[in-house]
Amino acid sequence: MPIIISYPISLVVIGYTKKIKKQKQELAELDIINKKLFTLISHDIRSPMATLKGLVDSMAFNDFDRETEKEYLGRLSKHIANLDLFLTDLLQWSQDQIKGKPVKSSLFKCKETIVQIGGVFEAMLLEKQIDFTLGDLNGTIYADPQNYAFVVRNVLHNAIKFTPKKGSINVCLKTEGHEVHTIIKDSGVGLSKVEIDTILEGEKLFTQLGTSEEKGTGFGLKASIDYLKKNKGRLSIESTPGKGTSVSIILPNSPLPA
What we know:
- Helices cover 57% and strands 17% of the residues.
- By secondary structure, the chain is α+β, with helices and mostly antiparallel strands.
- The termini are far apart.
């Protein structure tokens, strides 16, 4: 009789132990996410907010002429746009992390996504008078569409940021075997090998001022690399300082074997 009773009890104890271990692991993961969010919010939002406050204060407490006022409004608009993009990316990333959102891969055509994202940056492209062209976009990718849009948006934003006025950016697709390369090529300032390695390692946030003094946090690019890994993809960068950069977003065009 004692054996009959103790056996079910031991099963219950084992079940509770496993449940506690799982909850402990989930709490540890949430703690890591919270620390990352705290770091990003405390450091990467305070700086652009301080810049915005400085611009607003200058306009509020100085009697500028119309031309100077227009210049300040342009700078204000640019900083707000950058901050909005960062907050959008941060919100998507944090929701995915906290909810443990799984990758929902599906087959989809890339053209519509790329065209929509190009439209989002239309004002920035016009302001810098960048010649933005689209090549062959007839390709199908197997990935999470939301993750793909996140990566394209961030890579294109970086291309605009580091391309000088009257420069050029081209986006096209290239199929190689079972992979599709979304190639974003710019005529910007370029990157050194050390900078490329820092970006691709994905351990540190890489950021520097753009050609029109645009500021960034480097968060979007790092998160993009994480998303690509989850989608069985990768980032490839070819660049020469002073001669532009070509970034390839590489993803499968069909489900990969388990």
